[in-house]
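Example 9 (inverse folding). The structure is encoded as follows.
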């Protein structure tokens, strides 16, 4: 069994293995998969931070955090913030709020969030 798993891992590329790891990590938490997150409805999704940036929105700084659960990406935007203590690359978190579609991306403005232990 272990040899079969090793052989499969050697044939699979790194990105697919990472997506599979993320799907397994967040599958049993009772969260909505990011790929099926509804627009204009309350949802809770979880994922690992893959990207962070500060972008101005209407002249106000906005801290954008991109999370991935292996099925897709979601963007949490915290207006008026340049950073949030505890949110770093690779950190697992759950965000809750109402998603909207912004140029084909799922965006949640000022979500409630929970940082998960490593």
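The amino acid assigned to each position is listed next.
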């Amino acid at each position: 069994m272990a040899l079969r798993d090793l052989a499969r891992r050697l044939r699979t590329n790194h990105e697919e293995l990472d997506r599979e790891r993320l799907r397994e990590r967040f599958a049993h938490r009772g969260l909505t998969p990011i790929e099926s997150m509804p627009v204009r409805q309350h949802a809770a999704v979880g994922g690992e931070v893959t990207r962070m940036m500060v972008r101005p929105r209407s002249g106000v700084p906005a801290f954008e955090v991109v999370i991935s659960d292996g099925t897709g990406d979601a963007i949490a935007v915290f207006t008026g913030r340049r950073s949030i203590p505890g949110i770093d690359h690779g950190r697992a978190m759950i965000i809750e709020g109402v998603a909207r579609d912004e140029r084909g991306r799922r965006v949640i403005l000022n979500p409630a969030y929970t940082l998960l232990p490593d």
